[in-house]
Design goal:
The chain is α+β, with helices and mostly antiparallel strands and about 270 residues long. The chain is built from twelve helices and eleven strands. About 40% of the residues lie in helices and about 15% in strands.
Length: about 270
Amino acid sequence: MTRKNGIDILEHPVLLRRGIFSTDEAEKILGWPRKQLNPILFRLIRKGKLARIKPGLFCMKPPGTRDLKEGYTQNWFLIARALAGRRPYFVSHYSAMQLHAMTSGSIQTVFVSMAEQLRIPKNLSIPIRLVTIPKNRFWGLEEKWVTNEEKVWVSEIERTLIDASDRPDLAGGMMEIARGLWLVRKEIDSSKLVDSVKRFDSYAAAKRLGFLMEKLGVGLESDLRRLRRFVKASTSYAFLDPTRGKTGPYLSRWRLRLNQDPAEIEKNLMT
């Protein structure tokens, strides 16, 4: 009988491809009894070969790394998916922008939208930020490959722009959102975008997004007119970038207070 050891786990082709696995999955794949498997898993954790994400869930560490934060960044999305489990979720805001190639910024935090509260393990070495949203906002989603074999749920490009415009603080600010809009301008369906932002029902998101679309020449004029009619129903003014100071001139066309110089946004696209 072959002696069961950690090498069998670390070199098993199925577990290697997955990278992240549960005790139940390892037991089924390896065909080992639980009482023999558990001591080996925890020995690998002590040796720094495995990371324990939460009880019963593990992630392989790439050779030469000390924790998950130094490992393969695509695993961060898979870890977020694993933490969500059977609960509905999707990668959102700045993390969705990264998956859609709307920013060149490195991954610092994984933003995940869920309808339920979820406790993140305190010892988890990667930063995951949960954004709680109503159940009726689970739409405009797609599955996207993050490895050669694994997908995660992520907001579509149009929905990503809406989420980001609604919460610029979770998307790097309006300059980063403008850059993202510009990078995917040829992929956007402006009619779908306007329909979606109206469905999202956030005047602030519609105002910021409409302003950027007009400023950057993105979308059909007929769709911009529809968006302007929608925001005109709002009598209040939103700040262009709520992460900045409460100053700046008012723009009645989009019911915005321009607390950021539009020329600064355009200049940022050229760098």
